[in-house]
Design goal:
Helix content is 29%, strand content 35%. It is an alpha+beta fold and 112 residues long. It has one domain: Trna Endonuclease, Chain: A, domain 1 (3-Layer(aba) Sandwich), CATH 3.40.1350. It has a 5-stranded mixed β-sheet. A hairpin with a 2-residue loop joins strand 2 (33-41) and strand 3. The protein is globular and about 40 Å long.
Length: 112
Amino acid sequence: MNPSGAQAEDLALHFLLGQGLKLKQRNYTCRLGEIDLILLDGATLVFVEVRMRSSRSFGGAGESITARKRRRLIAAARHYLSQQIVTPACRFDAVLIERGGALAWIKDALDE
């Protein structure tokens, strides 16, 4: 991961912890993909994709979550869940960081 990616994840994690979520795991990786952050929001397991864009030349942070990226996130989440004794309620969120540090938290990002 490049330094700006790690910085974006740090910023997102700090924000989400401030919203009351609790960190379960960071940078979960399997052969199917990677999940930036896995947190608990009450009893709900939240898989978080962090996207940062310093320029809108190729679209904003939200547009960078392509159909291929969504499939890989879902596959990695299924892999993670297959290792759990009990499958909790879960959702996919995105934290989008645009140039200048503007941060947007999108809950249920893959449902939109």
